[in-house]
Amino acid sequence: MTYSDFLRLRELLDLQDDIGGEPDALFFVGIHQSYEIWFKIIVQALEAARDALGTDDADGASYWLRRVASAEDVLLAQLPALETLSPARFKRIRENLGNSSGFESAQFREIEFLSGLKDAAYLDRVRFDPGDLERLRRRLAEPSLREAFTAFCERRGSTDLVGVTLDESIDPQVLRLVDHLLDHDSRFARWRSAHAVVVERIIGRKHGTGGSDGVDYLRGTTDKRFFPELWEVRSYL
Predict the structure, then answer these.
(1) What's the CA gap between 13 and 235, in Å, rounded?
(2) Could you give the CA distance from residue 74 to residue 66 in angstroms, rounded to a whole number?
(3) Which tens digits make up the pLDDT trace of 159-202?
(4) What is the pLDDT of residues 52-84, one digit of tens each?
(5) Positive or negative, the Cα torsion across 43, 47, 53, 57?
(6) By the 8 A CB rule, do 173 and 155 touch?
């Protein structure tokens, strides 16, 4: 097996379709496809971390959560590349996008649902294909990472997270997990904020292609948190 065979490069490199003959189409499609690959990696790691907590494997959960944070660093690092797309050139691409929108990314919603930010209303507001819709319904029904962590702390008798944070000797494993969960939460929050700025730089305050409110919608999501109770602990220290 060759390197090309192993990575299925012939198929992969044929997936960046030309959009209306625009020279920037390779860049635009490729960067969004790479985002979806990273989303897939994050979804796998979040699921593995949740399942590890379900078996009281704190070290295993920490392993996977470090992967999540590192992948999210890559998501953030890719955003400046999008800023190289001029408004005029994106306008020509946008005219060929129809009603498609990043708002329809099922894997993005999986990350939210798996982490603990569950909102069933998305299933009615957004167009998903049947397979994606079924997967998201499953994610809504199954335990989230947030719920798995809460159950893990209850089994250990470490529900006083203020005390665990103030006295690092009480339960170092729980404290380490809290840090990893906040790493995930803070990186995703940074990505939301930075993404909104990039979009505004390219399209201003226009509505999104999928009918969303564009930048106004994106800015309205920047205060969302997966683990609000972990942030609230800081207020009591």
Answers:
(1) 49
(2) 13
(3) 999 999 999 999 999 999 999 999 999 999 999 999 999 988 88
(4) 999 999 999 999 999 999 999 999 999 999 999
(5) negative
(6) no
